[in-house]
Amino acid sequence: MIRVPQLRVVDEEGAQLGVIPTHQALLLAQERGYDLVEVAPMAMPPVAKFLDYGQFKYEQARREKEARRHQRSVDFKEIRLKPKIGKGDFDTKVRRAIEFLEEGDRVKVTVQFRGREVSHAYIGRDLLLRFADLIKDHGAVDRQPILEGKSMSMTLASSHKPKVAAPAAAPAPGTHPEGAAQPGAAAPPPAGG
Question: How many domains does the chain have?
Fold first, then answer.
């Protein structure tokens, strides 16, 4: 419902009709078979346009859906370490963190202490700093290592752009989805007994 006395009106082709009283603009829109939609309510006077409101809403929803499809939210991944982690396990965790960073995600690396291990927090700090040094080509330390209770954590930010999820690939020519029989292919032998 438009409550202002006058509007600047734009017709369906985009031509300006000037400042017209609201009731006259409504009648003009109805004569032409369109809706009168306020497109710039903060302007002085507000701007209204003749358009098919149903089609306008449909196109707006389609544009928003398309924009959502092409964007990717940055996820927060977590990698947990222990102070006594072996070299092979440590290298595996580093490789996994690099994969996350290449996808554009942020990574939280946490060293969890058990029992009296927390009294040697410098071991966890050295571990996290070594971890940060190994991934420096793929990301940067966003938050320095900090001890919180029985765990020490740091946050890594990716230096890569987030990858947009690729659409599902179409099946290759000559193949059928879900293992359906291809035309002209030999039928499987009957189950005998």
Answer: 2
